[in-house]
């Protein structure tokens, strides 16, 4: 009876955890997401998912696998299909086959927090299976309120497949653990097949799903090596993984789009996984038959691994190159374009410099607590060779490594942190709440109750309360405090930007000849070509597609990023015009977030990222000099070269395409190169002079010479040199809220003819 009551109480506690997880992901962003009758999605990728879902609900169940709005050649859609099919299917059913746009938008916004809340259930089940019910509940409760990428990617309006990846990963791992712990061989094979179904769904939800296949194969190798060393007779690996990978392979062959990005890598991973699991099982069986010495299997596997990799490289060089290119993403250098994308930076370098504080700021105390727990469990897993525990340790260790390589994988690691921390917290509570040891007499029992806390004021009562308070204060409270701002961080579009995209849609011609081509069913080789494109920085391409219904030159797949970077950093209008002609661009959108401008107490912008994609040197535009403060101490000072102010980005957004004449903003500095204590070289400012006019500064330089001297600007909005007006761009529109989120221009090259009727040209405000 007592056990039934406890089980009933745990179920209701689990329900409360799920509800708390849902509220955490919805309450704080409700007004921001559902503002003004529109749905303000919380990520750039979310806008493109909704674009695909818009099209899907008109053509259900046919989801677009290529998209002419991505470019003139109708590129293959890189986004996997399962998440969109699920969201679109729910909306389609709710709308009885013809859902209203509002229904589609609401379903799209609500699905992420629902999936995020449901992820606590498989996490609880994993914790219960591996440890006990207490550890499972603590893990689920921590995941419900924990900070980190999992929370950020499962909030209201973050309509992206990442939350589905995390949910399906946890379901796959739970199914595998359940199958491993099954004693009856047939039931274990059936459990392996169910694991394969979960793995299949995961692979259909993310093109990079080879990651989880690698985790399973790594566990297979480690488990067999340990079992061989211990002379264990039972093989619980092959009976689970062979049916799981076979089901996944069949699913990919039947359901996955053959043109899907990374389809070949997915197939290779699953086929190679089948080969590895089968080869390891066969090698272990064969070596066992001949009574080979312990350790022989490890040596044989090393030889097979090296030989297999070399053979694959020779037989499939192109595919090998693509796999290596994917792996390169785990170590972007500070000078590469990959480093400019914040989510792919290594965890410890998220801020641009190495910091051990970052994991705490992102994940809270659970990161370091879980790391200690993982080391403890790894020792236990090696000592006991428990297959389920070793699978969990392998999964957790690889998620730690993946996140250290790219912080974006924190939405996977969050699950492991919750489980590891929940287990350790459970141990602490179990120790504190353990029943008192047996006593010999009733008198001894009374004394023990008084001492251990069963009587009021006992020491054990205080121990129990103290342990509970410590767990809450050191783990749960800091996690909730860090999660609160993350759960309310509004990443949606500014109202002015949304209004401008609506203006673009209503006041410029449709790029396709067919009406409502946005909702058409696209077929390979039969898509229409857009009559023109829109030049904008790649970060904003998806919003332009969904809200503006226009074709951007660049989009967040980074396609066209280099082209857009070269255009916006060009200092010569003729050079910029050539790029527009090559890309059939008719309109240019200059965003406020790109140039370096005062934002609060700091100067910020995406200009440096743009320079990196253009393949240019940032020191052509600005440099950090050394200058002495009144106390004589050297400190950094950022100064802008004339080339910065002459770029198309600054001339379009800051000066509105018009002329700028400097007034009291021209500086001439005299500098000398110095070598710092750390061996790095810098330029120390020896003298700085300010001139009322550029002509005065130029005459001063001509008189004293240009060596060791330069004209610079101190304010990114006030050029030190004259800026000529642009002649091939006509200002059309700016966002209604000041400062404007964007300014929109029409390229008035000879190819476009007269200006559009109904589009009034007005001067921009510098």
Blueprint (SSEs and pairs):
Elements: H1 2-26, H2 30-33, E1 34-35, E2 38-39, H3 44-59, H4 82-94, H5 101-118, H6 120-130, H7 133-145, H8 149-152, H9 162-180, H10 185-205, H11 210-230, H12 238-255, H13 263-289, H14 296-315, H15 317-328, H16 358-363, H17 366-384, H18 387-405, H19 410-433, H20 442-452, H21 459-487, H22 495-507, E3 533-535, H23 541-546, H24 561-569, H25 573-582, E4 585-591, E5 597-599, E6 602-604, H26 607-614, E7 622-628, E8 634-640, H27 642-645, H28 648-654, E9 666-675, E10 681-691, H29 694-704, E11 709-712, E12 729-734, E13 742-747
Parallel strand pairs: 3-4
Antiparallel strand pairs: 1-2, 4-13, 5-6, 7-8, 9-10, 9-11, 12-13
Helix pairs in contact: 1-5, 1-7, 3-4, 3-5, 4-5, 5-9, 6-7, 6-9, 6-19, 7-19, 9-10, 9-18, 10-12, 11-13, 11-18, 12-13, 13-14, 14-15, 17-18, 17-19, 18-19, 19-21, 24-25, 24-26
- Percent of sequence in beta strands: 5-15%
Strand order of the largest sheet: 3-4-13-12
Q: Find the structural class using helix and strand composition.
A: alpha+beta
The outline comes out as globular
Helix residue percentage = 40-55%
**Residue-averaged pLDDT:** 88
Multimeric state = single chain
- Tell me the Rg in angstroms: 31 Å
Q: How many distinct beta strands? A: 13
State the distance separating the first and last CA atoms: 77 Å
Number of alpha- plus pi-helical segments: 29
Described by strand count, sense and barrel closure, the largest sheet is: 4 strands, mixed
Q: Low-confidence parts lasting 5 or more residues at pLDDT below 50?
A: 453-457, 751-764
């Amino acid at each position: 009876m007592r056990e039934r009551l406890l089980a009933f109480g745990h179920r209701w506690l689990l329900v409360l955890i799920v509800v708390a997880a849902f509220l955490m992901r919805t309450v704080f962003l409700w007004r921001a997401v559902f503002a003004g009758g529109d749905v303000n999605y919380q990520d750039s990728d979310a806008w493109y998912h909704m674009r695909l879902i818009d099209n899907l609900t008109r053509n259900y169940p046919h989801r677009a696998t290529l998209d002419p709005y991505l470019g003139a050649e109708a590129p293959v859609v890189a986004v996997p299909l399962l998440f969109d099919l699920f969201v679109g299917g729910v909306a389609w059913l709710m709308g009885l086959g013809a859902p209203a746009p509002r229904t589609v938008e609401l379903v799209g916004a609500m699905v992420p927090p629902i999936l995020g809340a449901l992820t606590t259930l498989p996490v609880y089940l994993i914790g219960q299976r591996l440890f006990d019910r207490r550890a499972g509940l603590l893990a689920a409760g921590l995941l419900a309120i924990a900070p980190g990428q999992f929370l950020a990617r499962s909030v209201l309006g973050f309509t992206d497949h990442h939350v589905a990846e995390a949910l399906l990963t946890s379901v796959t791992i739970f199914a595998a653990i359940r199958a491993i712990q099954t004693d009856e061989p047939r039931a274990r094979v059936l459990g392996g097949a169910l694991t394969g179904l979960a793995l299949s769904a995961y692979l259909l939800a993310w093109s990079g799903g080879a990651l989880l296949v690698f985790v399973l194969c790594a566990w297979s190798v480690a488990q067999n090596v340990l079992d061989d060393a211990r002379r264990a007779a039972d093989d619980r690996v092959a009976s689970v993984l062979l049916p799981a990978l076979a089901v996944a392979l069949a699913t990919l062959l039947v359901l996955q789009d053959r043109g899907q990005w990374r389809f070949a890598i997915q197939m290779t991973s699953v086929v190679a996984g089948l080969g590895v699991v089968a080869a390891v099982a066969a090698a272990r069986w064969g070596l066992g038959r001949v009574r080979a010495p312990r350790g022989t299997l490890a040596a044989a596997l090393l030889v097979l691994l090296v030989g297999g990799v070399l053979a694959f490289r020779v037989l499939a060089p192109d595919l090998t190159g693509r796999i290596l290119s994917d792996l390169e993403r785990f170590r972007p250098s500070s000078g590469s374009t990959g480093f400019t994308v914040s989510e792919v930076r290594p965890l410890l370098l998220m801020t641009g410099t190495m910091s051990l504080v970052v994991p705490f700021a992102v994940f809270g105390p659970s990161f370091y607590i879980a790391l200690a727990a993982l080391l403890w469990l790894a020792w236990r897993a090696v000592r006991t060779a428990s297959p389920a525990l070793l699978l969990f340790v392998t999964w957790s260790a690889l998620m730690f490594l993946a996140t250290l390589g790219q912080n974006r994988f924190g939405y996977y690691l969050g699950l492991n942190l919750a489980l590891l921390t929940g287990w350790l917290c459970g141990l602490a509570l179990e120790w504190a709440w353990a029943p008192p040891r047996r006593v010999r007499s009733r008198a001894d029992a009374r004394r023990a109750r008084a001492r251990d806390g069963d009587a009021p004021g006992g020491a054990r009562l205080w121990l129990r309360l103290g342990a509970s308070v410590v767990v809450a204060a050191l783990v749960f409270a800091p996690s909730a405090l860090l999660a609160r701002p993350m759960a309310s961080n509004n990443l949606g579009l500014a109202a002015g930007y949304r209004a401008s995209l609506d203006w673009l849609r209503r006041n410029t011609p449709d790029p396709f000849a067919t009406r409502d081509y946005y909702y058409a069913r696209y077929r390979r080789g039969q898509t229409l070509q857009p009559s023109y494109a829109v030049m904008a920085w790649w970060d904003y391409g998806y919003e332009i597609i969904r809200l503006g219904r226009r074709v951007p030159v660049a989009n967040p797949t980074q396609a066209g990023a280099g082209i857009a970077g070269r255009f916006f950093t060009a200092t010569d209008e003729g050079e910029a015009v050539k790029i527009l002609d090559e890309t059939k661009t008719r309109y240019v959108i200059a965003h406020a977030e790109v140039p370096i401008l005062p934002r609060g107490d700091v100067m910020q912008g995406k200009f440096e990222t743009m320079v990196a994609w253009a393949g240019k040197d940032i020191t052509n535009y600005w440099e950090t000099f050394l200058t002495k403060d009144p106390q004589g101490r050297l400190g950094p000072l950022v100064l802008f070269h004339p080339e910065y102010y002459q770029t198309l980005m600054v001339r379009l957004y800051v000066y509105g395409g018009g002329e700028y004449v400097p007034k009291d903003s021209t500086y001439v500095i005299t500098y000398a190169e110095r070598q710092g204590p750390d061996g790095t070289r810098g330029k120390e400012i020896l003298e700085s002079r300010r001139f009322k006019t550029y002509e005065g500064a130029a005459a001063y330089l001509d008189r004293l010479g240009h060596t060791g001297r330069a004209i610079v600007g101190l304010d990114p909005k006030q050029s030190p040199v004259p800026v000529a007006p642009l002649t091939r761009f006509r200002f059309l529109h700016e966002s209604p809220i000041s400062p404007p989120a964007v300014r929109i221009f029409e390229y008035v090259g000879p190819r476009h003819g007269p200006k559009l009727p109904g589009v009034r040209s007005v001067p921009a405000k510098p």
